[in-house]
Design goal:
The chain is α/β, with parallel strands linked by helices. The chain contains ten helices and eleven strands. The strands form two sheets. Strands 1, 4, 5, 6, 7, 8, 9, 10 and 11 form a nine-stranded mixed sheet that branches. Strands 2-3 form a two-stranded antiparallel ribbon. Helix 3 crosses helix 6.
Length: about 250
Protein backbone atom coordinates (compact mmCIF):
# COMPACT_ATOMS: atom_id res chain seq x y z
CA UNK A 1 0.00 0.00 0.00
CA UNK A 2 1.36 3.43 -0.98
CA UNK A 3 1.82 5.73 2.02
CA UNK A 4 2.87 8.82 0.07
CA UNK A 5 0.00 11.27 -0.47
CA UNK A 6 -0.17 12.85 -3.94
CA UNK A 7 -2.37 15.90 -4.52
CA UNK A 8 -3.14 17.62 -7.80
CA UNK A 9 -3.29 21.39 -7.41
CA UNK A 10 -4.90 23.56 -10.09
CA UNK A 11 -4.03 27.27 -9.75
CA UNK A 12 -6.90 29.38 -11.11
CA UNK A 13 -7.01 33.17 -11.32
CA UNK A 14 -10.14 35.04 -12.38
CA UNK A 15 -8.17 37.91 -13.85
CA UNK A 16 -6.72 37.39 -17.34
CA UNK A 17 -5.74 40.16 -19.72
CA UNK A 18 -6.68 38.18 -22.83
CA UNK A 19 -9.66 36.23 -21.45
CA UNK A 20 -11.10 37.65 -18.20
CA UNK A 21 -12.87 35.07 -16.05
CA UNK A 22 -11.13 32.30 -17.98
CA UNK A 23 -11.66 29.45 -15.46
CA UNK A 24 -15.42 29.98 -15.60
CA UNK A 25 -15.74 30.14 -19.39
CA UNK A 26 -18.08 27.47 -20.69
CA UNK A 27 -17.00 24.70 -23.06
CA UNK A 28 -19.76 22.38 -24.15
CA UNK A 29 -21.96 23.10 -21.14
CA UNK A 30 -19.21 22.83 -18.51
CA UNK A 31 -16.86 25.47 -17.15
CA UNK A 32 -13.22 25.10 -18.10
CA UNK A 33 -12.19 24.58 -14.48
CA UNK A 34 -14.74 21.76 -14.16
CA UNK A 35 -13.36 20.06 -17.26
CA UNK A 36 -9.80 20.26 -15.96
CA UNK A 37 -10.86 19.06 -12.52
CA UNK A 38 -12.79 16.07 -13.85
CA UNK A 39 -9.84 15.04 -16.02
CA UNK A 40 -7.57 15.11 -12.99
CA UNK A 41 -9.85 12.90 -10.91
CA UNK A 42 -9.29 10.14 -13.49
CA UNK A 43 -5.55 9.98 -12.73
CA UNK A 44 -4.93 6.80 -10.72
CA UNK A 45 -1.92 8.21 -8.85
CA UNK A 46 -3.74 11.27 -7.48
CA UNK A 47 -5.23 10.93 -4.01
CA UNK A 48 -6.86 14.34 -4.09
CA UNK A 49 -7.53 17.27 -6.43
CA UNK A 50 -7.76 20.88 -5.20
CA UNK A 51 -8.26 24.21 -6.99
CA UNK A 52 -6.12 27.04 -5.60
CA UNK A 53 -7.69 30.43 -6.32
CA UNK A 54 -7.88 34.03 -5.17
CA UNK A 55 -11.51 34.53 -6.17
CA UNK A 56 -14.69 33.51 -4.33
CA UNK A 57 -16.56 33.09 -7.64
CA UNK A 58 -14.21 30.28 -8.61
CA UNK A 59 -14.53 28.66 -5.17
CA UNK A 60 -18.33 28.74 -5.51
CA UNK A 61 -18.21 27.25 -9.01
CA UNK A 62 -15.89 24.43 -7.93
CA UNK A 63 -17.95 23.57 -4.88
CA UNK A 64 -21.12 23.63 -7.01
CA UNK A 65 -19.88 20.68 -9.09
CA UNK A 66 -18.64 18.86 -5.97
CA UNK A 67 -14.97 19.81 -6.16
CA UNK A 68 -12.50 21.06 -3.53
CA UNK A 69 -11.05 24.57 -3.55
CA UNK A 70 -8.87 26.67 -1.24
CA UNK A 71 -8.47 30.43 -1.15
CA UNK A 72 -5.01 31.96 -1.52
CA UNK A 73 -3.69 35.50 -1.27
CA UNK A 74 -4.33 37.86 -4.18
CA UNK A 75 -0.79 39.29 -4.33
CA UNK A 76 1.16 36.26 -5.56
CA UNK A 77 3.53 37.07 -8.41
CA UNK A 78 3.43 33.59 -9.96
CA UNK A 79 1.38 30.41 -10.07
CA UNK A 80 4.21 28.64 -8.24
CA UNK A 81 3.86 31.01 -5.28
CA UNK A 82 0.11 30.38 -5.22
CA UNK A 83 0.75 26.63 -5.31
CA UNK A 84 3.24 26.83 -2.45
CA UNK A 85 0.72 28.58 -0.22
CA UNK A 86 -2.00 26.07 -1.08
CA UNK A 87 0.35 23.08 -0.73
CA UNK A 88 0.77 23.78 2.96
CA UNK A 89 -2.97 23.28 3.42
CA UNK A 90 -3.18 19.87 1.72
CA UNK A 91 -1.01 17.62 3.90
CA UNK A 92 0.40 16.10 0.69
CA UNK A 93 3.91 14.70 0.23
CA UNK A 94 3.87 15.28 -3.54
CA UNK A 95 2.18 18.11 -5.42
CA UNK A 96 1.23 18.05 -9.10
CA UNK A 97 0.95 21.50 -10.68
CA UNK A 98 -1.85 21.19 -13.24
CA UNK A 99 -2.59 23.99 -15.68
CA UNK A 100 -6.12 25.27 -15.22
CA UNK A 101 -6.52 26.20 -18.90
CA UNK A 102 -5.98 22.73 -20.44
CA UNK A 103 -9.48 21.22 -20.59
CA UNK A 104 -8.42 18.10 -22.52
CA UNK A 105 -5.50 17.03 -20.34
CA UNK A 106 -4.86 13.28 -20.49
CA UNK A 107 -4.90 11.85 -16.92
CA UNK A 108 -2.11 9.47 -17.97
CA UNK A 109 0.19 12.48 -18.38
CA UNK A 110 -0.22 13.13 -14.66
CA UNK A 111 0.73 9.55 -13.91
CA UNK A 112 3.78 9.80 -16.20
CA UNK A 113 4.96 12.80 -14.19
CA UNK A 114 4.28 11.39 -10.73
CA UNK A 115 5.86 7.97 -11.17
CA UNK A 116 9.52 9.18 -11.25
CA UNK A 117 9.16 10.73 -7.78
CA UNK A 118 7.68 7.50 -6.46
CA UNK A 119 10.53 5.50 -8.01
CA UNK A 120 13.40 7.80 -6.97
CA UNK A 121 13.13 9.36 -3.51
CA UNK A 122 16.09 11.64 -4.24
CA UNK A 123 14.31 13.33 -7.16
CA UNK A 124 12.70 16.65 -6.21
CA UNK A 125 10.89 17.74 -9.38
CA UNK A 126 9.67 15.95 -12.52
CA UNK A 127 8.15 17.20 -15.75
CA UNK A 128 7.31 15.99 -19.27
CA UNK A 129 8.58 16.41 -22.83
CA UNK A 130 7.53 15.33 -26.33
CA UNK A 131 9.46 15.21 -29.62
CA UNK A 132 8.84 18.20 -31.88
CA UNK A 133 7.41 17.09 -35.22
CA UNK A 134 6.39 20.40 -36.80
CA UNK A 135 9.22 22.34 -38.44
CA UNK A 136 7.67 25.69 -37.48
CA UNK A 137 7.78 24.77 -33.78
CA UNK A 138 11.57 24.43 -33.88
CA UNK A 139 11.98 28.19 -34.31
CA UNK A 140 8.88 29.31 -32.39
CA UNK A 141 9.90 30.99 -29.09
CA UNK A 142 6.49 30.15 -27.63
CA UNK A 143 7.43 26.46 -27.90
CA UNK A 144 9.84 25.85 -25.02
CA UNK A 145 12.56 23.27 -25.70
CA UNK A 146 14.35 21.06 -23.20
CA UNK A 147 17.58 19.04 -23.37
CA UNK A 148 17.94 16.15 -20.88
CA UNK A 149 21.17 14.39 -19.94
CA UNK A 150 21.74 10.64 -20.17
CA UNK A 151 20.29 10.18 -16.67
CA UNK A 152 17.04 11.87 -17.73
CA UNK A 153 17.56 15.14 -15.86
CA UNK A 154 17.04 18.50 -17.55
CA UNK A 155 20.26 20.27 -18.52
CA UNK A 156 18.58 23.36 -19.98
CA UNK A 157 15.29 24.83 -21.12
CA UNK A 158 15.15 27.46 -23.86
CA UNK A 159 12.88 29.35 -26.21
CA UNK A 160 15.59 28.91 -28.84
CA UNK A 161 16.21 25.76 -30.83
CA UNK A 162 18.41 23.43 -28.76
CA UNK A 163 20.49 21.54 -29.58
CA UNK A 164 21.42 23.70 -32.55
CA UNK A 165 22.38 21.62 -35.63
CA UNK A 166 25.70 23.17 -36.66
CA UNK A 167 25.99 20.33 -39.18
CA UNK A 168 23.42 17.89 -40.54
CA UNK A 169 22.76 15.29 -37.86
CA UNK A 170 19.77 13.05 -37.19
CA UNK A 171 18.56 14.03 -33.73
CA UNK A 172 15.37 14.80 -31.83
CA UNK A 173 14.40 18.19 -30.44
CA UNK A 174 12.02 18.02 -27.47
CA UNK A 175 9.23 20.37 -26.47
CA UNK A 176 8.71 20.90 -22.77
CA UNK A 177 5.20 20.05 -21.56
CA UNK A 178 4.49 22.32 -18.60
CA UNK A 179 3.17 19.81 -16.10
CA UNK A 180 5.31 19.81 -12.93
CA UNK A 181 5.43 17.35 -10.04
CA UNK A 182 7.18 18.45 -6.83
CA UNK A 183 8.00 17.15 -3.43
CA UNK A 184 6.00 19.51 -1.23
CA UNK A 185 9.06 20.78 0.63
CA UNK A 186 10.77 21.45 -2.71
CA UNK A 187 7.80 23.44 -3.99
CA UNK A 188 7.92 25.63 -0.90
CA UNK A 189 11.71 25.98 -1.27
CA UNK A 190 11.66 27.03 -4.94
CA UNK A 191 8.96 29.62 -4.24
CA UNK A 192 11.43 31.33 -1.91
CA UNK A 193 14.45 31.32 -4.25
CA UNK A 194 15.67 34.59 -5.68
CA UNK A 195 15.27 35.11 -9.45
CA UNK A 196 18.35 34.29 -11.54
CA UNK A 197 19.91 35.72 -14.69
CA UNK A 198 19.01 32.82 -17.00
CA UNK A 199 15.42 32.89 -15.79
CA UNK A 200 15.16 36.60 -16.53
CA UNK A 201 16.80 36.28 -19.94
CA UNK A 202 14.55 33.45 -21.16
CA UNK A 203 11.53 34.27 -18.96
CA UNK A 204 11.41 30.63 -17.84
CA UNK A 205 10.99 30.08 -14.11
CA UNK A 206 12.37 26.51 -14.21
CA UNK A 207 15.82 27.87 -15.10
CA UNK A 208 15.94 29.40 -11.60
CA UNK A 209 15.63 25.94 -10.11
CA UNK A 210 18.40 24.51 -12.29
CA UNK A 211 20.70 27.44 -11.50
CA UNK A 212 20.16 26.73 -7.81
CA UNK A 213 21.20 23.10 -8.34
CA UNK A 214 17.81 21.37 -8.14
CA UNK A 215 17.38 18.23 -10.24
CA UNK A 216 14.46 18.19 -12.65
CA UNK A 217 13.67 14.75 -14.05
CA UNK A 218 12.23 14.84 -17.57
CA UNK A 219 10.03 12.02 -18.88
CA UNK A 220 9.02 11.58 -22.50
CA UNK A 221 5.22 11.46 -22.65
CA UNK A 222 3.67 8.63 -24.64
CA UNK A 223 0.08 9.84 -24.52
CA UNK A 224 -1.92 9.37 -27.71
CA UNK A 225 -2.47 12.98 -28.78
CA UNK A 226 -0.37 15.50 -26.91
CA UNK A 227 -1.34 18.27 -29.34
CA UNK A 228 -4.92 18.01 -28.06
CA UNK A 229 -4.18 16.95 -24.48
CA UNK A 230 -1.85 19.92 -24.07
CA UNK A 231 -4.16 22.40 -25.80
CA UNK A 232 -4.37 25.63 -23.78
CA UNK A 233 -7.19 28.18 -23.83
CA UNK A 234 -5.78 31.71 -23.66
CA UNK A 235 -7.95 33.72 -26.08
CA UNK A 236 -11.55 33.87 -27.32
CA UNK A 237 -10.30 32.13 -30.48
CA UNK A 238 -8.90 29.27 -28.37
CA UNK A 239 -12.26 28.99 -26.62
CA UNK A 240 -14.00 28.58 -29.98
CA UNK A 241 -11.41 26.00 -31.00
CA UNK A 242 -12.08 24.07 -27.76
CA UNK A 243 -15.73 23.74 -28.76
CA UNK A 244 -14.61 22.37 -32.13
CA UNK A 245 -12.29 19.86 -30.45
CA UNK A 246 -15.22 18.51 -28.40
CA UNK A 247 -17.07 17.74 -31.61
CA UNK A 248 -14.10 16.48 -33.63
CA UNK A 249 -12.98 13.99 -30.99
CA UNK A 250 -16.38 13.08 -29.59
CA UNK A 251 -15.49 14.27 -26.09
CA UNK A 252 -18.16 14.75 -23.45
Amino acid sequence: MRTVKVTGLIPARYGSSRLPGKPLKMIGGKSMIQRVYERCTQAALLDDVVVATDDERIVAAVEAFGGNAVMTRVDHLSGTDRLAEAAGKTGADIIVNIQGDQPFLDPKMIEEGVQPLLDDVSLEIATLMVPITREADLEDPAVVKVVPNLAGDAMYFSRSRIPYPREAFDHKVYEHVGLYVYKTETLIKVSQLAPTVLEQVEMLEQLRWIEHGIRIGVVESHCANVAINGFSVDTPEDLARAEEILEEYGLE
